[in-house]
C-alpha cells in the first residue's frame, strides 16, 4: 500500500472513531438528563434493533414505537409538570418517575394505555411534590452502569436478555428470562451501593427455551404475544 492511499484511510478511521465516541457520550448524556437510566446489557442503546435480544424483531420495533408515542403524548398533555419515563419490553410498559398527585398518575397511565400495541402497564410512578434532581438522575445512571457490569460477570445468565431501568435508586429488571435467571440477576444487583430496591418486571420462560437459546447460539424467539408475567 502506498502512502497516498494509507493517509486518507487513516483520516477516515479517525473520523469514524470520533463519531463513535460522540455517539456514546451523547447516549450517556441523554440517559442522565432523562432521569431514567435504561440499558440493554450487551445489546443496543436507544431502542435500536438488536440480534442479541430474545424478542422478535417485530416486537423490538413495536416497543420502540410505543416508547416514542407514549413519551410524546405525555409531553403534549402534561408538559413540564410531570417527570415520567416510558420503557417497553415485549409490549409490556414500565412507567417510572414522579407526578404531583394520584389523579395525575392515573391520567398518565390512561394516556399510555391508549397507545397502539400496549398489552399491559406496570405503573411505578411516585407521587411527589418535587421532581427528581439532576444529581439523583446522574446517580441512577451510575447505578445502571454498575448493574450492567455485574450482570455481565454473573455466571449462567445471558446479560443481553435483561433491560435495566433505574429510577431514584430503584432498579427495575425487564426481559424474557427463566425464574432462575431472573433471581440470579436480581441478586447480582441488589448489593450495589445506592440501590434501595430491586423490582422484577419479567416475562418468564421455561428453561427449555433457555437451552434452545444456548443450542442455537442466538436468543430464542417465540410468538409476539407475551405470556402473563409476575413480579
Descriptive account of the structure:
The protein has helices at residues 3-34, 57-78, 102-113, 134-152, 179-190, 207-216, and strands at residues 37-40, 83-89, 92-99, 120-123, 126-127, 162-167, 170-177, 197-204. The chain is an alpha/beta fold and 231 residues long. It has one domain (33-216): Histidine-containing Protein, Chain: A (2-Layer Sandwich).
Key terms:
231 residues; alpha/beta; Histidine-containing Protein, Chain: A; 4-stranded mixed β-sheet; 46% helix; disordered C terminus
Largest β sheet strand count, sense and barrel closure: 4 strands, mixed
Strand content: 15-25%
Order of helices and strands: HEHEEHEEHEEHEH
Distance between the termini: 59 Å
Average pLDDT, all residues: 82
Q: CATH topology, what is it called?
A: Histidine-containing Protein, Chain: A
Number of helical segments with 4 or more residues = 6
CATH class division: Alpha Beta
Shape: globular
Number of strands: 8
What can be said about this structure in brief?
This protein is 46% helix and 20% strand.
Describe the protein's topology.
Elements: H1 3-34, E1 37-40, H2 57-78, E2 83-89, E3 92-99, H3 102-113, E4 120-123, E5 126-127, H4 134-152, E6 162-167, E7 170-177, H5 179-190, E8 197-204, H6 207-216
Parallel strand pairs: 3-4, 3-5, 7-8
Antiparallel strand pairs: 1-6, 2-3, 6-7
Helix pairs in contact: 1-4
Amino acid at each position: 500500500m502506498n502512502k497516498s492511499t494509507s493517509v486518507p484511510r487513516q483520516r477516515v478511521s479517525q473520523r469514524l472513531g470520533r463519531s463513535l465516541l460522540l455517539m456514546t457520550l451523547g447516549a450517556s448524556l441523554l440517559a442522565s438528563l432523562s432521569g431514567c437510566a435504561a440499558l440493554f446489557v450487551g445489546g443496543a442503546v436507544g431502542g435500536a434493533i438488536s440480534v442479541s435480544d430474545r424478542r422478535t424483531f417485530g416486537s423490538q420495533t413495536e416497543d420502540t414505537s410505543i416508547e416514542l408515542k407514549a413519551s410524546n403524548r405525555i409531553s403534549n398533555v402534561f408538559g413540564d409538570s410531570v417527570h415520567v419515563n416510558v420503557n417497553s419490553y415485549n409490549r409490556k410498559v414500565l412507567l417510572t418517575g414522579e407526578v404531583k398527585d394520584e389523579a395525575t398518575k392515573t391520567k398518565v397511565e390512561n394516556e399510555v394505555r391508549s397507545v397502539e400495541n400496549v398489552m399491559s402497564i406496570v405503573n411505578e410512578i411516585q407521587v411527589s411534590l418535587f421532581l427528581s434532581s439532576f444529581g439523583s438522575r446522574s446517580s441512577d445512571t451510575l447505578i445502571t452502569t454498575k448493574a450492567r457490569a455485574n450482570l455481565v460477570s454473573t455466571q449462567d445468565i445471558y446479560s443481553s436478555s435483561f433491560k435495566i431501568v433505574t429510577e431514584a435508586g430503584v432498579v427495575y429488571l425487564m426481559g424474557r428470562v427463566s425464574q432462575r435467571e431472573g433471581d440470579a440477576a436480581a441478586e447480582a444487583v441488589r448489593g450495589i451501593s445506592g440501590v434501595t430496591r430491586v423490582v422484577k418486571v419479567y416475562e418468564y420462560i421455561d428453561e427449555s427455551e433457555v437451552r434452545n437459546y444456548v443450542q442455537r447460539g442466538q436468543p430464542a424467539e417465540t410468538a409476539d404475544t407475551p405470556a402473563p408475567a409476575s413480579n
